[in-house]
Amino acid sequence: MEGLFPYLIDEKYSLRVAYFSMEFAIDQALKTYSGGLGFLAGSHMRSANHKKQATIGVGMLWSFGYYDQTRNEDNTMKVEFRRKFYYFIEDTGVRVKVNINGKPITVKAYLLPANVFETAPILLLTTDTLENDFLSRTISYKLYDANEKTRIAQEIVLGIGGVRVLKELGIDIDVYHLNEGHALPLAFELMKDYPDLEELKKHIVFTTHTPEKAGNEEHNINLLNEMGFFGDFDARQIQEKLNYYDENFSLTVAALKLSKRANAVSKIHHGVSNKMWSFVEDRCQIISITNAQNMHYWADKHLLTYLQEHEDYQLTAYKKHLKHILFEEVADQTGKIFDPNILTVVWARRFVEYKRPWLLIYDMERFRRLINNKDYPIQIIWAGKPHPNDYRGISMFNEIVMMSKEFKNVAVLTGYELKLSKLLKQGADVWLNTPRWGREASGTSGMTAAANAAIHFSVDDGWHAEFQKDGINCFTIFHADPNLPTEEQDRQDYLSMMEKLENIILPMYYNDEKQWLNIVKTSMTDVMAYFDSSRMVDEYYEKLYKFGLDSGTKNETLKGDKSTDMK
Prior knowledge:
This protein is 40% helix and 17% strand. With 567 residues, it is α/β, with parallel strands linked by helices. The strands form five sheets. The protein has a nine-stranded mixed beta sheet, with helices on both faces. It has a six-stranded parallel beta sheet with strand order 17-16-15-18-19-20, with helices on both faces. Helix 12 (301-308) packs antiparallel against helix 13 (312-334) and helix 13 (312-334) packs across helix 16 (418-427). The longest helix is centred in the last third of the chain and has 26 residues, at 486-511.
């Protein structure tokens, strides 16, 4: 394993870890991600490099990526799939076989060397190779394929194929990290080496990223069995081993039963997760390790220098320069010329209903008054990708596109990938985040916006609840009672958001530049202090990977319980 690293491993991080993730957002040039899960994995790999950790990533090489978000003639969103080509990854020469649906399929392994993008080394697996027939090649065509059998096949390739590739390369691993449950089949491959369940658990940890149903996959156990999800075992053996007999087999439930320890990705999510999964018998303990992002990659170096040197004039001037660069992209895409002197609010992330991209236009007449206010002018930008088969999400996106045609100071951008994400964060004055409370496990886009002198304006959920000092380092939308009907929560959150935007944020930006700059600087300082992923990857080693490996520590197994604390 040592030959993979262009750096000397820090003894503190010498435990050998394989980090399995269905997506990695490493660089704009490598289309192996869809959204937040990939952004998190990418930052993890960058910080693993900077901290000189013995971590190797294992993912998939998607031939067509997630999808290319372009426009139709009427400017509405268009989904396109274009084959990707990469000349900076290396063929390892390794091929392994996995059985899918009773048929042997070849998995080919490529390597993203650590020195290409300053990451941990990452193995990328594909079935799109000449040894396979057409159908088998399509398994690694598209990230999160909508076909259920293809999704299961992808998970088999990642989990079982990934373990076999590591063994074929002679890479010994101490701990296997499941970044979400997609790679769960790796546990069944390892079960051949560790037939004792308690011994197996010592080598597996699990991160759960979302309370959303779509992020906690379930499949009929007979279909999984037929597809080869359990490797060399059949479903009955796994059911007996895990004492888990549900007909709909939850990847998250199984991961909690197969890991020595799991983590949620914020303190609020920790409470939500422990309550959500309290019914699972013999599950591992779920702790909290709050997400973070790699600020070396995301934060503009000039802004940080001016912050550290207390050069307020230069900080303000350079922020306007970054706004101008973003506005060139706005003009190019929409034909609208934005002004760097006007407050600019950005809503940009995965387009999905619970994140409420439409909250600003909840009351269209009030929105028109906001947009047309000459005393406190405002510019608003939306961007983000819905899943290509989420027709509700696409419809929401297109409704906002059509609405934006009415205003010269409202824009909707397409192509929300790493490059545009960075542009938006560097060019925003306010980064708006509007999820329904308790459903945003962490959210990380606001961290990197804050590091780029954008003030985070968010519902008090996920990471923001741990960061926020309202009016000092951010602006907070204090959430409505989550026990209220959804429609009433939306109404109350909307009113709270608009009250703060119209009566505090806009007047402060134009009338109290000193106070605005103080919030910007405090925000940058606070976010850099705790929400850089160097802290996160250290916690993963100390709280997750090393746990249970010394002789004095045993795996903590919890009995199912209908009650749980929310601390």
